[in-house]
Amino acid sequence: MASRKEVADLAGVSEATVSRVLNGVGPIKEETRRKVIEASEQLGYVPSALARSFARSKSGNLGVVLPYVPKAHLFSAYFFSEMLSGIGSKARDNGMDLLVMFRTPGEVMNYTDLFRRQKVDACIILGARDDHGELAALQQLQQEGHPFCIMSQHFAGESFMEVDADHVDGSRQAIRHLTDQGYRNIAFLNGPDSYSNSQERLQGVQIGMNEAGMELDSSLLLEGNYGRRSGVEAAATIATRLDEIDAVFAANDRMAIGVMHGLRERGIKVQDFPAFVGYDDSDAAEMAVPPLSSVRVPFYEMGELAASKLIHASLGAAASSVNTELPAETARQLLPTELIIRASSIRNN
Amino acid sequence: MASRKEVADLAGVSEATVSRVLNGVGPIKEETRRKVIEASEQLGYVPSALARSFARSKSGNLGVVLPYVPKAHLFSAYFFSEMLSGIGSKARDNGMDLLVMFRTPGEVMNYTDLFRRQKVDACIILGARDDHGELAALQQLQQEGHPFCIMSQHFAGESFMEVDADHVDGSRQAIRHLTDQGYRNIAFLNGPDSYSNSQERLQGVQIGMNEAGMELDSSLLLEGNYGRRSGVEAAATIATRLDEIDAVFAANDRMAIGVMHGLRERGIKVQDFPAFVGYDDSDAAEMAVPPLSSVRVPFYEMGELAASKLIHASLGAAASSVNTELPAETARQLLPTELIIRASSIRNN
Questions:
Q1: What is the pLDDT of residues A292-316, one digit of tens each?
Q2: Which part of the chain is the HTH lacI-type domain (chains A, B) (predicted)?
Q3: Which residues of B are less than 8 Å from A287 in CB distance?
Q4: Rg for chain A, CA atoms, rounded
Q5: At A330, is the pLDDT very low, low, confident or very high (cuts 50, 70, 90)?
Q6: pLDDT, tens only, B282-330
Q7: CATH number of B167-297+338-345: 3.30.70.590, 3.40.50.2300, 3.30.565.10, 2.40.128.120?
């Protein structure tokens, strides 16, 4: 079999470049990559990725763990699809592939096993659960020094690498926008309390209310499950109290739009709608009628950030020193959120 | 190191089950899987996935190649996200992970290399290009007997395994729905001619027109790029000819909604809109105002079908005999499309 030097000579590049190309490490010009691959093939120097991976204990894969619900069309959820797009973009820029793994609800994921079995070099966990089994699995991962990052879930008291958006401030902005216009009876349709993201929204709502000298009326605090259907259901409650409720803040756009649909189904006209503010600023917000004000969450940028942090961690110094040495305050990184104002929440009278 | 038999005894299962679990082959009950993994770990029998893969030349990964456009938020496109959800579902059911790889536009993809380097056991190609380099790469893949499947692109004269939807019939249905209600001047906003899917839509439009005793007026044939923006641009042409154009058929929902937005921007009221039929039946269709009639494409089911075909091919007999022996007529499989009628295309007068 040909040597690495022969491949380098034929391709007209250095031996180091041959290694970088064949190990998929670092950014490499497409033309250079092609030259090296062609030279390798011409000389019969096509090392098996597995043999190479075996030698250097790297798979070249960035893992992404997603919660799996049969038939749920997971990739179609705005939340996940945007984060995955950002993750994929950074992975691609760094010559890594994306290994998508699904976790069945209720299953305790053996994250450590993914690293021991060398399926991934680093791992992003979406939809982590806030329960004892999950926490123990993540603590083990950290003890063994494997690079991982949790997105959109916060484990208080731990120093896991986490990437999220500032939902406290986003929710505060939404409430302030409403109270500044004189809305007083604001219904808040939150997601399940088990997600830290829901708890943060509630906190932001309370801060916003307090800033306006108000208190959250607990009878106006509703709970959905982040699905459109649960918004339609909440509309039943809201419709009966439309004489008092003058604004609705929903913890995501799907629920806000569900409430709008539910009101419309009950024959309530758009001009009689309360003010609406949603959350996520998904495509649907702009297309809603009336166009929906919404708190923009930079999901794509969050995905890019998480991937970048991990790629640097796994390519950099010994992975074992990375996670454990990160001080808690830099381990968690929050990107800013921004309220986008559209017709649904602008007071006309 | 412990033997497979010891693991089997401790877990209370057969040795074959131990192998199936550790090789990730076939459907396995979660409880059984856990028992085997726990027994393996207890006995220190945790074979490296790479070593195992090396021995059996299987990665356990189902590859998906996607076209990559920087910043394009690819996973957020309805088309891709639904197909990936279907693919992911079948992969998960069969204990396989999904290896997502991105292809830069203009790059000639070395598909064969993915198999030679044992990154994947089978591969799905989305967004294949209809050009010479791509065709040659696919022909090589087939000659070497690697299981692969092309989605949403047709290579005429080849016997590649292909999964697509019946876009000729879908477009015919859309046109017949319009002509049956008496619409005569139908503008057709198609996507780029380089996609076989666009060509099929045009063919369906012509058939539908002919069935109604009409011919497609070439001055009413417009071309966009499947993006919303190109619909907004087409609205400029449509707006100036609204006295003659009484219906618009767009090759996807995003363009149809773009046309609606463009008309609205020009101060044209919904009651003065032409009839609209879109294509894909994405989430956006239902949420549009007026709700958009659209041709439903079973993207999710297409993803499931492609994954199933490949998983059977790669798990079944020697992969080398699978692709090459498929007769052309079964190599290509089309799922039916269905027109969903909503308010946008129902004639009131």
A1: 999 999 999 999 999 999 988 876 5
A2: 2-56
A3: 257, 284, 287-288
A4: 24
A5: low
A6: 988 988 889 999 999 999 999 999 999 998 887 653 333 344 444 444 6
A7: 3.40.50.2300
User: B40, B59, B78, B81: best mutation site toward chain A, by most A Cβ within 10 Å?
Assistant: B81
Say which of B49, B72, B117 has its CB closest to residue A119: B49
Residue of A nearest to B59 (CA): A50
Portion of chain B with pLDDT greater than 70, in percent:
88
Per-residue pLDDT at B133 exceeds 60: yes
Topology at the third CATH level for domain A167-296+338-345: Rossmann fold (3.40.50)
Chain B residues in contact with A88 by the CB 8 A cut-off are 68, 74-75, 100, 102
Would you say B177 and B345 are in contact if contact means Cβ atoms under 8 Å apart? Answer: yes
Provide CATH code, domain B61-165+300-333. Answer: 3.40.50.2300
Measured CA to CA, the distance from residue B61 to residue A63 in angstroms comes to 12
For residue A57, the chain B residue with the least C-alpha distance is B50
Residue B295's SS3 state is strand
In this complex, do B88 and A71 lie within 8 Å of one another by their Cβ atoms?
no
List the single residue in B54, B75, B100 with the smallest CB-CB distance to A81: B75
For residue A282, how far is the Cα from the chain centroid?
13
